Amino acid sequence: MGYVAARCPNCGGDLQLNEKMQKGYCAHCGTPIYFKEAIQRIKIVGPVQVAGFAKLDSLIKLIKKDLEFGMNRTPEFRDRLNRAIEMDPNNQYLYDLQSSEIWNAKIVDSKLVEYAGNVKRIVVPDCVTVIGRFAFKACSKLEDIVLPRSISHISDRVFFKEERLVISAYKNTYAARYALISPAYLQIIDDDENNQEHIRKIEETLTEIVSYKNTVEKKIKTHYNSKMLGKTLKPIALLAILILIAFIIPNGLQSATGKLFAGIIAVFAAVLFVILPGYVTTCRRLANKNQILRFYKKSNDLLGPLGINDFKYLKNIWESSKTDLAYEAKYLEGIKEQIINMDIKQFMKNPDVNLLFFSYLAGERPKNLDKY
User: Fold this and answer.
1) DSSP readout, 71-112?
2) Residue 23, SS3 per DSSP
3) How far apart are CA 341 and CA 124, in angstroms?
4) In the Cβ-directed half-sphere of 338, how many Cα atoms lie within 13 Å?
C-alpha cells in the first residue's frame, strides 16, 4: 500500500495520502479531501503551498483551538504558529504569541497554571479566564503583561515582584480592577490620554496613602511593644523584692516564715515565666488590633465615598457612565491630606484591652489576632 506526502489545501497540515483511497478528512482541520485529485495535483505542480487569507484564517483558528485545549506545548502547535507567521509576518496576534513564548504556558480548562518562560513581555491569550497562584513565579524578567477581557479571577501571589510590573488591561474589566489595586502600574488599552493620566494620579495618591498607613501601623505596634514591656518588668521587679525579703528574714529559709516566702516566690516565679509572657503578648496584639482598626475606620469613613475600603478599591471605577476620573483623582488627593494630617497620638491612648489576667488563666483568648 503506497503513501504520498502532501499538505491540506485548507490549513496546510502535513498529510500522508493513500493512493488507493478515494476520500478522507484532514487530521488537523477536518476538511474533506479527495485523495486522487490531491495526488494528481501534487504530481503535476509539486507540493501544495498554503497561501491566501482564507487558509491563514483556518490556521489561526487551529492555533486558537490548541490554546483553548492546552495543546500549545506540542510541536504541532509551534509548527502551525511558525507557518502562520511565514504567511503573515505583520500579524500582531501571531507576533504576540511568538514573542511571549506562549508554548511555555500550561493552560488547563481555561486556567493558566504555570508560565515557564522568562521573557520581558507576555500577552496572555483570550482563552484564559483564570490565572492560578504563582503562575508567573518563574518569570523573573517580566516587566510588561497584557491581560485579556476574558480574565475573571487572578489568584494571590501570581507575579514575581509585582510592584515593578506594567499591567495592560481593557477598561471596565476584572483585569483592570485588579491592576488598579495591585502594586503594579495600570496601563489602560484603547483609552484616551486624559483618562490614563487621571488613573495614574489615582494610583500614585492611593500608593502614598497606603505607605502612610504602613507607617501608622508600625508606630502603633512600636508604641504598644514598649508599653506592654512595662507589664513584664513590674512583676519581675516584684519578684526581685520578694527574693530580697526572703534573704533578710531572720534564720532565712529555715524558719516557717522563710519557707512560706519561698513557696510564694516559687509559685510567683512559675506564673511569671510560664504564663505571663503569653498573656502580655496577647494583650499587646489585642491593643494593636483595636487601635489599628480604629485608624482603619476613620480612614474608611473618608475613603468610602470613592468605593475604597481598607485602602483598596472595592468597585470598578468604569462601571458607571457618570464616573468622573478627573474629579475622583482630585477628591482623593484631598482625602490623602486629611489622612496624613490625622493626629496619630489618638491611637496611642486607651488600648481598650478587656482581657483580665484571671480570664486568661481560665482559657479565654481573643479570636482573629493572627495578622496582628
Assistant:
1) -TTSHHHHHHHHHHHHH-TT-HHHHHHHHTTGGGEEEETTEE
2) strand
3) 42
4) 12
Q: Which residue bears the cell 509576518? A: 89
Q: Which helix (H) or strand (E) holds 228?
A: helix 193-248
**Do 269 and 221 form a contact (C-beta atoms < 8 A)?**
no
Rounded to 10 degrees, the C-alpha dihedral 41/43/48/54 comes to 0
Angle of helix 75-87 versus helix 53-68 axis, rounded to 10: 150
Residue 321 makes CB contacts below 8 A (sequence gap 6+) with none
The pTM (predicted TM-score) of the whole model is 0.51
**What are the two backbone dihedrals, phi and then psi, of residue 86, each rounded to the nearest 5 degrees?**
-60, -35
Q: Mind listing the pLDDT tens digit for each residue in 224-261? A: 877 776 666 666 676 666 666 666 665 555 666 666 76
State phi, psi for 196 to the nearest 5 degrees. -60, -40
Name the 3-class secondary structure at 41. helix
Question: Which single residue is written with the C-alpha cell 510590573?
Answer: 165
